[in-house]
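Predict both folds.
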Amino acid sequence: MNTQLDNSNISKHLGKITGYKSTYDPSLLVREPRANNRKHLNISDDAPPFAGYDIWNAYEVSCLTDHGMPIAAIAKIVYPANNKYIVESKSIKLYMNSFNMEVFSGNIVHVLNELQAKIATDLSNLLETDVRVDSIPEGPLILAPNHASYLDPPAVGCSVRRVTYYLARHTLFAPPVGSWLLPSIGSIPVNQESPGPSSLKNIFEVLKNKGTLVLFPEGGRTLDGNLSKAEPGIGLIAARANVPVVPVHIIGSREAMPRNGSWHPFRPIRVIYGSPMRFSGDPKNREDFQKFADEVMSAIAKLH
């Protein structure tokens, strides 16, 4: 597709009354050359004076399972800002809506993985670059990030459009600050050495009410910057609550605020969300809890 054709396609949907398609249709997508706006600023596509990513958030993408059950998710679309094209905004809205009645086979995890792969393929082909798509299902959910810094909880929470709850070491809830600040931002106190029934009750109450829980599989911040071995607790909670777990890789938070160090502003932090996972072992077997926790850490390591 050349620039002339791209320019003619930009008006395909703009300024027109457009109905929503009832079937999946990737031909709805339209790309626009970045050069159309950059040339006025004397910015070359070949050597732009910046680096970064375009990030699009689709706050409700829906489709159907082969049993007719609707599945809804939040999608985060990321692609390099130095490629030659950008997707036209109205076209991507129409494209996303074309999935509403599309049927995918399998359970919710398989459906979301297939939907995610299809969107990534279509946009990568359109924009001629690698497009990453993160999908987060609606409803009760565990976000499972690696832990390297005190900045990790807000980094994960501000990247999703939902209220998030966190586990925090019970000693941090001391007055005068921790006793009011941490509960106000959704923190749940837990004794890591001896978790009590009240902590577990609060955790399951969040998930029962379709909330989002941020749970660090490693249990604490890394000492050396490398991923640590997971504790079995995330496997136990995922098994008992029967909710999906989304692995999350946080990159750069340790450089922005290292352990026992001060805050270094303007250091970039990337948050990458993986595909949802579900516990499939024996819900009473500690070895299966540990196996699942290890699988979550392995999934985190693969996100980059």
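Second protein follows, with its predicted structure tokens after the sequence.
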Amino acid sequence: MRVHIVYPYKYDKCPKQYSAPCSLVRHKLVHKYSCLLCTKRFTNQNDLNKHKPMHIKKKKYRCPKCAFTFKNTAELFMHKLVCYTVYDCSFCKTTYKTEYELLHHECKPKGFTCGFCYKKLPTVNDLNNHRYECNYPKFNNI
């Protein structure tokens, strides 16, 4: 047999309903201690006071590479792990900030080498055209 729970205790400032009066009293405190700068709510003045400096505390730790600022050295340290890590493409020598960018960039490895000047070229056609330009002996004697 299912029992239907009645919520007779309602708060006029929000749609919340409670089955016990003590629950309603506890909930009213959340509305009493609200941060005026953001949407956070607290059950007591002490927690609200601890929260307030978050909005006014200056960020005094600056990343020397990108100039982002942080509230403490721990945040700066975590940022540096990302900011100072670079990913280099072994084919085109381009540098990327993330591994995702490296894996998804459009780079074709240069797979064909001229036997005369050792220049690397992406396709066989490019290699054949190049051989005429670099005075490759086999092609110039024709």
